[in-house]
Amino acid sequence: MLPYPQIDPVAVAIGPLQIHWYGLMYLVGIGGAWLLASRRLNRFDPTWTKEKLSDLIFWLAMGVIVGGRLGYVLFYDLPVYIANPTLIFQVWKGGMAFHGGFVGVMLAAWWFGRRNGKTFFELMDFIAPMVPIGLGAGRIGNFINAELWGKPSDVPWAMVFPPFSDPAQLPRHPSQLYQFALEGVALFVILWLFSRKPRPTMAVSGMFAMFYGIFRFIVEFVRVPDAQLGYLAWGWVTMGQILSLPMIIGGAVLIWLAYHRAPAAGQKAAV
User: Fold this and answer.
1) Distance from CA of residue 254 to its chain's centroid?
2) Is 23 within a domain?
3) Which of 130, 144, 168, 258: disulfide with 203, CB 3.0–4.6 Å?
4) Total domain count for the chain?
């Protein structure tokens, strides 16, 4: 069993002002995405300026935050928020959902693309390799917060999370680290290597959706589901798996369409 590192969730405290590591992880994700995008900007569109890229990243970040919050409200705890709608705005109490953030990013990309002469999938193919940076950073934030841990386990790397998080004090799978490794590191490497060669439009987007869905579906087998939902079917199906399944199927369909609809001569680098 590995010891859980005791890290204060509050990174900086100045009087009543507290800056949490989880919030800083959002900045790491957004900043990392901007740096990577700026390196690939000329390959995407030489006419785009850094200012336009900054505008894109800003709207995508808004899509992540608004979509992630609304996704959690709708998919994970709707009755509580219906009973007290003001809780929706109390984001400092937690409650974000990747799948909601993903929808928010898609809507932001569609809107920004229409205003800047880009198709939806042109932007999504450009964005996809950057997303794992934010996903990985977010999972590290979950780990520091001692939240979203896994099922009890006797594997050598199991951890006992703090009593405020797990009163049962059982050794558990550190599922946040599994997700960091898969959704952050592995997904980034897959998309980075895949997008280095010319790919038809939609292919990179499809790879992102399919592999994220697969990784999330797998980790859900060892991750404890949200207490207010529990398992939704057969004693093992979780909300995360239900929401990931359409991503797996949709991603595979996009890859198939990309390679069957686009002529080889029309392939271009999916930056």
Assistant:
1) 19
2) yes
3) 258
4) 1
